[in-house]
Structure formats: structure tokens, C-alpha cells
Amino acid sequence: MLSFAGKRVLVTGASKGIGQACAARLLELGAHVVALGRDERGLAELQGSVTPVVADASDAAGLRAALEREAGDVDLLVNNAGVARNAPILDASADDWDATFAVNARAALIAAQHCAKSMIARDVRGAIVNVSSQAAFVALDEHAAYCASKAALDALTRQLALELGPFGIRANSVNPTVTLTEMAAREWGDEAKAAPMKSRIPLGEFAAPDDVVDAVCYLLGDGARLVSGAALPIDGGFVAAPFNNAMAPGYDRSARTGRRTLMTAAPFSGGEKLPPCPTTRLHSHKEGNKEMPVLGLGTFTGTRFTQRAEPGTMKQTVKTWLGSGGTMVATAASAHASWRRTRW
Ligand SMILES: NC(=O)c1ccc[n+]([C@@H]2O[C@H](COP(=O)([O-])OP(=O)(O)OC[C@H]3O[C@@H](n4cnc5c(N)ncnc54)[C@H](OP(=O)(O)O)[C@@H]3O)[C@@H](O)[C@H]2O)c1
């Protein structure tokens, strides 16, 4: 059974969310936890053998000083503190960029330096886990600074693995998808918002904090003694399947059984009326009093939508299709946007 008895573990961002869940599990597994964050009350919620360190990770000098003063000799490190300042790419500000990198990437380097120096001095074969994100691998709407900072964090992980490996110190990243912390659950609890994202995850689920904690504990533990430099997605297969369907709301997971499906554009997508296009003008389908432009007609094979119908044969085929019990799927704004880019 996994045990961290006798280990001193620094967890940054331990006052809430994934970091707090991680700190709580490490305490259960016998570790002494050095819990770093700004919110004293959140840190005080942790019960057991805890050293709280109240520090602002975005202040490089202040963070170094706090670690030197209060962290002590750390055996294992979880770099979890993170922020997201999201904006459309044309509006992303230098301040947001710098503030994001200061916490998500620079603070992780500073904490790793502090801990690794002590590990090396004591000849401790320690481990570092950086809590990155699926955002390190894929672009997400309006997440420029966040995605870039998490990609930087993964690069730092590899660098730590390279340069600290000779001292027996391992470094890995975990890269979760949407993880339902209390705050995220409020944001993603709305099924209308969650459905398009979930429909692109082969396993069809968001992560729970415990899913991330399980992976962090594995990577910190001796069971991962030869694992270093990895970036481990905890994402139900999301980043492994970039061409998974992007169709929702209304996407019917049972359609994956190979049912023939008609794909239409939603009459309003992202609040904007669909611009005219030759195909949608030629082919439309009426649902009640709504005119639905038809984008495609095909079969779900696994997760792929195949067999686009030829323009001109579409209208008749649609009728036969629906008449014979075929399903209909409305596209999400994002799918519509990419379709528009490639087809208009
Ligand atoms: N939840 C998700 O969907 C998700 C998905 C993928 C990756 N992640 C990553 O997982 C990590 C934890 O996310 P979460 O969802 O648990 O977020 P959260 O609930 O907002 O918690 C963030 C933690 O980071 C700390 N933090 C932020 N800025 C800080 C600063 N300047 N100085 C010190 N501590 C700071 C916060 O502490 P204070 O408030 O006390 O300062 C808090 O404990 C982040 O790195 C995030 O990018 C989250």
C-alpha cells in the first residue's frame, strides 16, 4: 500500500481545489505537508501534520524568501498553484500574460530549485509533480496565456527530468481535463455548456479532483521509480483523439453505435445567424418552424462522422433518412466555426 510516512511534501496552491485534495490525501498517507497558498483560511482547513506557508507565488523574491524561511527540507514537491486569465487572442494583455506565467511556470521553477537543492544536499531521491493541463497540448478558445504557460510548465518538467535525473530526482507532469473542483463544478455544472466539451472526450466524463490526486500520488511514489519527464493526460482520451466529433449540443452518444445520422447546423450558433453558403441554401430541413441548414449526412463509425452526402442528392436523402428513423444532430458553435473556415 502507498505510504508517504516520513516524507515532507510541499504542495503549492494547497488552500483549495486540486491542491487541497492532494494535500489532504498525502496527509492521510502519512506525509508531513508544507501547504503553500495566499488564503490562510483555506490552508487552515487541512487537518494533521501541516506547516502552512502563506506566500504569493507570483512574487519571485517573496516566494524564495518564504520557502527558505518556512519550507524546510522537502522530499517531494507538487507544483499545483495555477491561475487562468482568459481573453480573446486579440485582447490578451501583457499583464495577463506575465501574471499567468509568474504563477504557472516561474513559481514552479523557483519551488523546484528550492526543493532540489535540499534533496541533492541530503542525497534524497525525491520527486516533483507539476500540475499542468490538457491546455499544454491543445489550443482552447480564449486561453492563450494559460495554454502557453502550461506548455512552458511541461517543458520545465522535461528540463528538470534531464538535469536532476543524475541526482536520482524524478520530474513529471499531470495534464488534467476539466476537473470538477467546487469552483469548476459551478462553472461546468450547466449541462448545455458541458455537453460540447464532454462529447469530445472518448470516455465522456470530466475529471474529479481524486482522479488527479491518484495520478499525482502514483508519480510521487516508488511505483513510478523509472518514470521521469512524462506528461500524463488525465482526460478520458481527449488529447489522444483530436479528430473526435465536435458536434453538440444534441450530440447523441448512442449514435456511436454506427447509427446513421444527419448533421445540421444550429439555426443560431454562438448568438450569430449562420451566414449564407451554397450548401446550406440548397439543403435545409424544417424542424417545426425552424429552418435547419444541412451540413452533412453520414454514419458514426466509432467516433467519426463519415460518408458525406453529395450536394444535390441531399434533400431527397434527408427525407428518406429521417423517414427511416435516422437521428439528427445539431452542430456546436465551435464545429460550425471550423466548418465555416474550411468550407465557406
Ligand atoms: N480545475 C480544472 O479544471 C483544471 C484542469 C486542468 C488543470 N488544472 C490546474 O490544476 C491546478 C489547480 O487548479 P484548481 O482548479 O484546483 O484551481 P483553484 O481551485 O483556483 O486553486 C488554485 C490554487 O492555486 C493557488 N494560487 C493561485 N495563485 C496563487 C498565488 N499567486 N500565490 C499562491 N498560490 C496561488 C490558490 O491559492 P490562494 O487562493 O490561496 O492563493 C489555490 O490554492 C492549477 O494549476 C490549474 O491550472 C485545473
UniProtKB/TrEMBL annotation:
Alphabetized GO MF terms: carbonyl reductase (NADPH) activity; L-xylulose reductase (NADPH) activity
Lineage: superkingdom: Eukaryota
The Ketoreductase domain, residue ranges: 7-177
Keyword Ribosomal protein part of the UniProt annotation: no
Keyword Phosphoprotein applies: no
Gene Ontology biological process terms from the UniProt entry: glucose metabolic process; xylulose metabolic process
Protein's name according to its UniProt entry: Ketoreductase domain-containing protein
